[in-house]
Amino acid sequence: MPIMIGFSQHRKTLLSEELDRVRREFPSLGLIKVWLAGDFSRGYVDFDTPLEFLIVRDTTDPYPKRADFFTDHLRPQVETHFHVYNPDEFSQGEYEDRFIELTLKAGELIYG
Prior knowledge:
Distance between the termini: 44 Å
Oligomer: single chain
Structural class: alpha+beta
Strand content: 15-25%
Helix content: 40-55%
Number of helices: 5
Shape: globular
CATH topology: Beta Polymerase, domain 2
Number of domains: 1
Largest sheet: 4 strands, mixed
């Protein structure tokens, strides 16, 4: 299997450009806070590294449907995962949800 030299740098550039693009949209989406999460937030980039966001937003939508709002409005150009919590869930999850706990320790607050 051939290996593309410099692919991780190319992927990092794609992810950075997409992050900049979606970040410009955050003010219009009614967000409270957003953290960059996952491997990219820790500087690890591989051929399949996605963008991952932990988002706090007022919502009553069921958890499985919440990411749809962001997919519809932001139309991601790379694989992107949106983990959306309302303020109460986020407050509870700081000590009970492993994803929230790890993101608060190793992620980057990028909005709010």
